[in-house]
Design goal:
Rossmann fold, EC 1.1.1.343, N-(1-d-carboxylethyl)-l-norvaline Dehydrogenase, domain 2, 2 domains, oxidoreductase, oxidoreductase activity, seven-stranded mixed beta sheet, Pgluconate_DH, 296 residues
């Protein structure tokens, strides 16, 4: 039976927007968050009680300990035949552990890599999903509501763990693309002959092979702060870049560009890197990630 109602745990920047997009598509969503101002119910117990069986609960909390804590609670609250979906940025090896833990209680598990950031409410979310076909098929109304309009933006990537593995590789590629734009921007800013770097970037938005949404966001960032003088050249890494490089080592796959882009972020923590100003600006533009301002 297809799921037209869903529980959603975690109503932060992405989870809150996902709840709204699902409701706009006509689905029933019961959301729980530790912040009572945004939560629909006072507790996870109440969320489960509000859902009809067989239940489906989407977990949208930070990877690691927070996700494990919610999985542990749901394992005791849900019934055989219910489903848990992890839509956070969990490592794919954790998915395998969570699936085994829930399977022991007759509860299904699906992992969903989600991309779209703060723009997902309007544009839809790219979804990379892993799990058994019967579980994924049950969630089709949910995936259809979240994905962008049109034929693309959703894939059943494979078995449990495949969704987050695909999202991890996506983020590794994202690291390298941002680094390339950042290096090009720094070089243009450095030479005396180019005196309108922002408009050079803007000129690339049409008719060039490097046009992309990231390029559009770079122009947005330069419109806000033409020389990125307000930003400190410091960029965090959220984990997926490291995991991508580790997976490459485990599988003997050379990833020089992605690896170099990860190391460049490490270097940004030692100096006020001009390149990392652009990377920080891009992360803020597409994902609402925090930036560090210069102290002045």
């Amino acid at each position: 039976m297809a799921s037209t109602q869903i529980g959603l745990v975690g109503l932060g920047k992405m989870g809150g927007n996902m709840r709204e997009r699902l409701r706009n598509a006509g689905l029933t969503v019961v959301g729980y968050d530790r912040n009572p101002e945004v939560s629909d119910v006072p507790s996870l117990v109440d969320l489960v009680d509000r859902l009809d069986g067989p239940r489906a609960v989407w977990v949208m909390v930070p990877a690691g300990g927070a996700t494990q804590h919610v999985i542990d609670q749901l394992a005791t609250l849900l019934k055989p035949g219910d489903l848990v979906i992890d839509g956070g940025n969990s490592r794919w090896t954790d998915d395998e552990k969570h699936a085994k833990q829930l399977h022991a209680r007759g509860i299904g598990f699906v992992d969903a890599g989600v991309s779209g950031g703060v723009w997902g409410l309007k544009n839809g979310y790219a979804l990379m999903v892993g799990g058994d076909k019967e579980h994924v098929d049950r969630l089709k109304p949910v995936f259809d509501a979240l994905k962008p309009e049109g034929p693309y933006g959703y894939v059943h990537a494979g078995k449990v763990g495949a969704g987050h593995f695909a999202k991890m590789v996506h983020n590794g590629i994202e690291y390298a693309m941002m680094q390339a734009y950042a290096e090009g921007w720094e070089l243009l800013e450095k030479v005396d002959s180019v005196d309108n770097v922002r408009e050079v970037f803007r000129s690339w938005q049409e008719g060039t092979v490097i046009r992309s949404w990231l390029l559009d966001l770079a122009v947005n960032a330069l419109d806000d702060d033409e020389h990125l003088e307000k930003l400190r050249g410091f960029a965090e890494d959220s984990g997926e870049g490291r995991w991508t490089v580790e997976a490459a080592i485990d599988n003997a796959v050379p990833l020089p560009a992605i690896t170099a882009s990860l190391f460049a972020r490490f270097a940004s923590r030692q100096d006020d890197s001009p390149q990392m100003k652009m990377v920080a600006a891009l992360r803020n533009q597409f994902g609402g990630h925090a930036v560090e301002s210069k102290k002045g």
